[in-house]
Specification:
Strands 1, 3, 4, 5, 8, 11, 12, 13 and 15 form a nine-stranded mixed β-sheet that branches. The chain has one domain (2-237): Extracellular Endonuclease, Chain A, CATH 3.40.570. The longest helix is centred in the last third of the chain and has 24 residues, at 259-282. It has seven helices and 15 strands. By secondary structure, it is of the alpha+beta class.
Amino acid sequence: MLVSAEESRAGVACPSLFARGQVPVIVNRKLSAETTSLCYEAFAVLHSGVSRTPVYASEHLTRASVAAARIVDRTDSFHEEDRLPVASRARLDDYVRSGFDRGHMAPAGDMPSESAQAESFTLANVVPQDRALNRGLWAAIEESVRRLAVARGQLFVVTGTIYAGTSIDSVDGRVLVPTSLFKAVYDPARGEAAAYLVPNRSDADWRSIPLGELTTLSGIDVFPGLVASMMDLPEPRTYSRGDTAGGRPKGRTRDEPSFEEWALATLERIARRVLREFLKSIF
């Protein structure tokens, strides 16, 4: 759904995706130029026609939505966002041989249905992201936030970009490369919030910052009017498949599942696919 500026400010188009139904407030007016608000099934985006990337993506994660997302097979289907003007949106060929990953702001792994996951591959939800960061530390942050949502019941999450300095890189001369990324997390039940802040580079480390500092650095008040105590964010870490308790079998990483884990996962995917086809044939 494409929404007007008035709807965007009020948060009425997809209020369930924002804490208290309030959209983030852009404090730095430069970030407001050529922006468009987009609502999707499981996330919302404020897109910049200047950077041709999202300014932020907002989600409401629950224990149930994370559980549903766990059983959705990932199918990469990156596509251009045809609801945006052609000149203001990223193109698929912008990323060809760019050296960067197409990094999701609202992760595909958060999407609770096949249709929601397909929507998450819109380039309106993507930034040029360092490959090592995307596949390492950032993936660990995403998974840690999912597990935190399961532990606490629900979280509101805003993921966004920071462009710092006087010289900003771009891919294909069109899509700006963020210098840092953030993922802000709010627990409405406990009244706690904080944000992960990570430079967009291969040797990046992360730090936890309060919302006030995030507003200063990013120019975005991600949870406007919110009074929250500082959340103790979980340490980002990789997990092996099937590790539901949060531990990790010694000597293996997320990218190195055992044969048994691989075989079980493959059988599960096949069984789900067969079940879907059977149900389609009936209905």
